[in-house]
Amino acid sequence: MSFSGKILDWYHINKRSLPWRDSTEPYKIWLSEIILQQTRVAQGTPYYLRFIETFPTVDDLANANEEQVLKLWQGLGYYSRARNLHAAAKMVVDDHGGKFPESYQQLLTLKGVGDYTASAISSICFNEPQAVVDGNVYRVLARYYGINTPINSTEGIKYFKSLAEKVMDPDHIRDYNQGIMEFGAIQCSPKKPLCLHCPFSDSCVALQKGLVDQLPVKLKKTKVRNRYFNYLIPIYKDTSGNQFTRLNQRIGKGIWQNLWEFPLLESKNALEIDDITIRYKEVLDTLQSVEILEYNENAIVHKLSHQHLHTRFWIIYTDTKFENQIPVEKITEFPVPVLIADFIKAFKF
Fold first, then answer.
1. Residue 180 in contact with residue 7, Cβ under 8 Å?
2. Distance between CA 304 and CA 287 in Å, rounded?
3. Which of 214, 245, 261 is the last residue of a domain?
4. pTM for this structure?
5. Which of 25, 33, 102, 165 is the catalytic position?
6. Choosing a second label site near 212 at 20 to 30 A (CA), which of 60, 114, 229, 285?
């Protein structure tokens, strides 16, 4: 039996029941694919369900405001995906009359849609014979054929795409593409793959040569940058006992664009309370008569793809009002990075 035939047989027996799996509606497939980029199915599924409930159609998503989209996305990370999702929805509505493009080439014109996503949507929704290549597919092909070309190199990207096109089943492309991705997620998983009960156990090069744990090969990542974040949480209580604090919106093209956070004092190295006492006015220049308390003695290391954020929170009590203050009970309405969301949950205002 051919490679694609074994994938199809395996898939028909082992495919998971997922909320978007039996649909060929482009909006639902596109939404699921964007959410599942760099996100496990178990984590992404509740987000998918919330998005579908909140925005049942692409028109609903296009007409939402960005803060509403970012708030719903909160906790998934890589927030550029959410901004691109919103922008692409507007493109579908404004440029295509609310109807998704039906070809691979046209889908590529949508914001945030690359080769993989366009291939997935065009094949699953419109039966266009386009081969998908995601992390799962890279792993399956690299192990089965014993390929040590780095998957994140220019050469590797081209080679694996070409190979994926050669082994796909164009007549059953919808199930085949979903099948090979599912196979990589469940059977040929990154760690502890189920090699003993694999339909390819008699022909997999990596298994025969003892290379399963070494494939696929990836080039080393960019050097990690260490940054030191000091979040200053101003708290003012009025005569009625109501408490207020402040959030600022991040701007520019850096991490967490357009999300909200407490006033941030970034430093070149770790700061102590004496440093904060001297420097807090750099970000809270109008605060008077303050008491500063250390919230966490040891920095929380928040790891992003190329950055490690060594983060400490400092509580600053004041008996005077300050600019842009908001009631503390309102802060959960703002879209914030998960680092800030975790603090809000833990801290008792």
1. yes
2. 32
3. 214
4. 0.85
5. 33
6. 114
